[in-house]
Amino acid sequence: MTSLLTSISGQFGKAILLGTLFPVLIVSVLNELIIAPMLSFGPALQEQLRKIATGEDKWAAVSLLFVVLVITGILYNLNIPIIRLYEGYPWKKSGVGWLFAWPKKKRFREVIPLRKAVRYLRPRLPASCSLPDELREQQNALALFINSELPDSEELVLPTRLGNVIRCFERYSSVAYGMDAIVFWPRLVAKIDSGFAATIDEAKTSLDFMINSSFLCAISGLLALVLGILGPAPFSDGFVGRWGWRFVLFFGLAILFYTFAIGRAKAWGQQVKSAFDLYRFDLLKALGYQQLQPVTFFEEKALWQKISMQLLYADSRENPLPYRSTTRLSVSPVGVQLEVTRVLKASAVYGNLDVELKLQNKSAREAQFVMVYDTLPDGFKVLLGSPQSTGTTLQVSSISPPEMKTGAIAAKKRAVITYTLKPASS
């Protein structure tokens, strides 16, 4: 998923310049000042760099520029593997990965039940009782932590904090709307305004700067360690003091840049989340489903899950989602599959029409309730008192257009809703 969330506004030059070239230049200067004195040819190297800076050796300047550009190009093309390394994917199944992930999974097992308990308790408190401000603040902080620091399942927890922050917003579209980010993001990009796309890229470029700086500092720290160990009497008091502080300095900088990267990843995630919030209905219309804009949370999740399956399995023709629909269902819980059959026929009363909606529960689970949204033919309205049901209860919330809520529909069972339409002029 991380590879899909790369530059989308076309500003590749800016991303390379700020996200990759600047870290290379900054760490190169630090290496010249800190690592070069450890080398036997360090003084000669510093003299050569002085000539390049003053313009005395132009060919050396061209060679140095070429080396910097090569390193920048390599680092830019390794951007995704480096980020995944920092997320913990390559080593999550190792002993070190288990050791790092265990406390995060433990925290997950602690905070999720706690939040569920608070959710259960709040609606059941007496109307006269209000949560103390401190407890409410703690609840908000807990919700923010869960939604920004941890994914929605313990199996998805990664060894590093950065990995969990990124995975958290990668899962946002699925948790919030039932949209598979891997399926929909490449399509959603086409609907994002260029100005908003630029803000997403700027957030990603800022993350790249921090990650690349951390990575290069870590390599420099390892270089200082190797040079120190391979030098004469590496563990003598004087020599450890010579290379030890360099090693600590570079690794300290690597950790510092990594810490900053977590904040940049959150900012990037907020932009990606906002893209789904703002442009998902534009995508729905672009996919051809102009008449299927959902009106409830349950209906939207079921709709996107259905479209996801159709896009993933293009050759599947099992219960395809129609591009236009006169009857829509919103089922609770999400995932219960209901099939609706709409029959329109002439009524016994001249000029009236009888509507029959057959709701078939195709799942092995009970539908706790179903919201039914129907449309009226032009020139007709619902006859008051005519909506009825068999196989379940029925509550009518609106008759223009018809909106009704059923009771439970058992697994593999069917309920039938009927009502009568009459000419609007009568």
What does this protein structure show overall?
The relative contact order is 0.09. The strands form two sheets. Strands 2, 3, 5, 6 and 9 form a five-stranded antiparallel β-sheet that branches. The two termini are 58 Å apart. Strand 2 (338-346) and strand 3 (353-361) form a beta hairpin. The chain has helices spanning 12-35, 42-54, 58-77, 79-87, 95-121, 133-149, 161-170, 172-177, 181-188, 194-230, 237-286, 297-312, and strands at residues 327-332, 338-346, 353-361, 369-374, 380-382, 388-390, 394-399, 402-406, 414-423. It folds into two domains: 2-92 and 158-277, no CATH class; 326-423, Mu homology domain, subdomain B (Immunoglobulin-like, Sandwich), CATH 2.60.40. With 426 residues, the chain is of the alpha+beta class. It has twelve helices and nine strands. The mean pLDDT is 83.
Task: Throw out a few tags for this protein.
426 residues, alpha+beta, Immunoglobulin-like, 2 domains, five-stranded antiparallel beta sheet, four-stranded antiparallel beta sheet, 9 strands, 13% strand
